[in-house]
Structures are given as C-alpha cells and as structure tokens.
Amino acid sequence: MSGRVDLVARVRRFVERHCIPLESKAHVHDPAALDAALAQLRPVARELGLYLPQMPVEQGGLGLSWVERAAVFEEAGRSYLGPAALNCAAPDQPNMISLLRQGTPEQQRRYLRPLAEGRMRSCFAMTEPAPGAGSDPSMLCTTARREGGGWVIDGHKWFITGAVGAAFCIVLAQTGEGPTQFIVDMDNPGLECVRAIRAIDPYAVGGHGELRFTACRVAADAVLGEVGRGFVYAQQRLEPARLSHCLRLMGRARRALEAAQAYVRERSSFGDRLADLQQIQAMVADCHIDLHASRLMSLDCARRMDEGLAVKTESAMTKVFVSEALNRIADRAAQMCGALGMSEDDSPVALILRELRPFRIYDGASELHRATLGRRFLSSKT
C-alpha cells in the first residue's frame, strides 16, 4: 500500500511540476503542438518511473492492477498532458491492449513495441457517417473483401480520435465472415485523412479525423485477431476504455473544482466572501458528493475487472453516472467562477468544461446505455 501511495504522490508532483507549467492555449486543436509537448514530457515520466502504468512489466510498463492504476489515472488526468505523457491515454492505451491480446508476434514487434515506447501514435476507426456505424455498431458499412492473397478495404470513417499524425489505425470492416479488425498504415495509398474535425473538446491528442478507404489494399497479415470476431474484440476493448476515461476525466473535473474553490475563497461580493454564501457551499458540497460517488463506482468496477468478473453492466452504469457527474462538477465550477469561468485565457475551467461535455456521447451515449441497461434489468428475473 505504501508503494502505491508513493506512486500516486509522484504522479501528482510530476503533473504539478512538469505538465501544468507546459499547458498552453496554443495546444487547442493543434495535434502537432501537443505532440511536441509530449515529446518533452515522456522522457521525464520514464526517468521518474511513471511511464506505462497500465502495461505489463515485460512490455516496459509498471504492471499495475486496475485498482492500483485508478488513482494514478486520476492524478495524471488533472492535466490534459498527464495521461499521454505517461502513455496511458486513448486511443493508444486500448490499442495497446488489443495488440497485446490479439496481435501476432510480428504485429507486436511492428506496432505494439513502438507504440508503447512512444515512437508512434495510433487510432481506432469504427464510427461512420450515416447510415453507417455509430452508437449501433451493427450498422457497419465499411467492407473488406479478399483479393490476391490479401484484402481490399472500402469505406468512410469520421470522428476518429487520434487520426491526425497517427502512424497506423485499427479499422473495423465487414467481411463475408463477419466484422473484422485490420491494421492499416496511415501512409497506405488507399487511405486518405480527409480532414481534422474541430470538435468541442480542445485537447484530443491527434485530434479527430475523417478517413476514406478507397481500394485500400492490405496483406493477409493485416488482420488483427481472427476474421469475423471484430465485434467481440471491440467489446473487449470498450469496457476497460470506459473505465479508463472515467478515471482520467475525474482528474480534470477535480482540477476545475480546485480552481473554483480557490476562486470563491478569495472573491468577495456584497461584503461577503463567495465561500461564505450558502448557495456556493451547497454547490461545492454537491461537487464533492458527485466526485466521491464517481470514484467509488469506478473503484468497484476496477476491483471486478481485477477479479476477472464480467463488468458489461457495471462498466455501462459507471460510464453513464460518471460522465454526467463530471459534467455537473465542471458546470458548477464554471458557474462559481462567474465570468472567469467563461474565459479560455484566464482559468482552466472553461476548457475543462468543453473537454468533459463530449464524454456523455463518447463510448456510447448515455441514452443508449440507459436503454440497454433497462432492457437487461427487465429481462432478468432477479
């Protein structure tokens, strides 16, 4: 336990001393600027023994359990640079898990090793424009057909996080045998990064890209895992990805709350400190209640994953509650800060609010999860 506490404290010091001072408005919607900042931070994280907390020791990581990495992810998340500096940010983190579980030795040598070492970035391409896959992955329209000993992929993907500047993508495509994952190098002549989409969240590493696959030829060994099991693999990455997002973004919400609390302690209005007003006190209390409940739900899910238990239901409930709770925290923090909470230049709160809003949609919209959970509970006899 003392080692875990020490690790969390070291991550906090790293974020305070190295990540937060490097934060800059110049990073907003600029993947190249973010990559340059991370290139400065990752060697420091390695030297301090904080790098790759989620990966096995034999892969150069710290080998932490889910419960152990929970507090580490939260502390790293206090800065938008923190998780990527430790190389435990999406989409690279779940892609590493996929490559570790389903990759061949050659795929691990070519893609997993440099990804883990921070020498390249990646993305995961599933979401498509209508009428393609979105919240409903069964609407998958991108296809892959066998030809000449390899595969030819055709399709259109968008809102692909991490695509700008990535070295490769893991793409989900429909085949005659069923949905299948393929590894495609981004410099493949049949793959075009059409544009970077300026989404509401300002600090996504690699931004959000729109991709077109046009007669994109890949070799037979581009298949990741088994042909026809793409949905199974996607679900396997989704549950830990949900929890990881909850943990990292909890740190961002906590940062917004810390900023708001510091402001209301100092700011006076009509002869009283804001902190002495009951309405402000109630907002602060509600924020801490939401944060505490979010942490407990996340830890319960982490414990179940460590025990090898199924968390399909628990991860969905946790994702819905935490995504909405963190939005409430950031929204209250902005409200407590008044005009300062609206400024992108003078406080981190406004941009944190922008970061947290999409979480109610990413990894499945809250409405979809509620409908699925409701059906699941109603069909159960317990």
Structure notes:
- This protein has 382 residues and is an alpha+beta fold.
- It folds into 3 domains: 2-89, Butyryl-Coa Dehydrogenase, subunit A, domain 1 (Orthogonal Bundle); 122-228, Butyryl-CoA Dehydrogenase, subunit A, domain 2 (Beta Barrel); 231-379, Up-down Bundle (Butyryl-CoA Dehydrogenase, subunit A, domain 3).
- The chain is 50% helix and 16% strand.
- The strands form 3 sheets. It has a 4-stranded mixed β-sheet with strand order 1-4-5-8, with helices on one face.
- The longest helix has 37 residues, at 230-266.
- The radius of gyration is 21 Å and the shape is globular.
- The model has no long low-confidence stretch (mean pLDDT 96).
Number of helices: 11
* Biggest β-sheet: strands ordered side by side in the sheet: 1-4-5-8
Number of spatially distinct domains: 3
The parts where pLDDT drops under 50 for at least 5 residues are none
* Head-to-tail CA distance between termini: 37 Å
Estimated helix fraction: 40-55%
For this structure, the CATH topology of the largest domain is: Butyryl-CoA Dehydrogenase, subunit A, domain 3
How would a textbook summarize the main sheet?
4 strands, mixed
Evaluate the radius of gyration. 21 Å
Strand content: 15-25%
CATH architecture of the largest domain: Up-down Bundle
* H and E string: HHHHHHEEEEEEEEHEEHHHH
Shape: globular
Can you say what the CATH homologous superfamily of the largest domain is?
Butyryl-CoA Dehydrogenase, subunit A, domain 3
User: Which class do the helix and strand fractions yield?
Assistant: alpha+beta
Say how many strands there are. Answer: 10
CATH class group of the largest domain: Mainly Alpha
- Mean pLDDT, nearest integer? 96
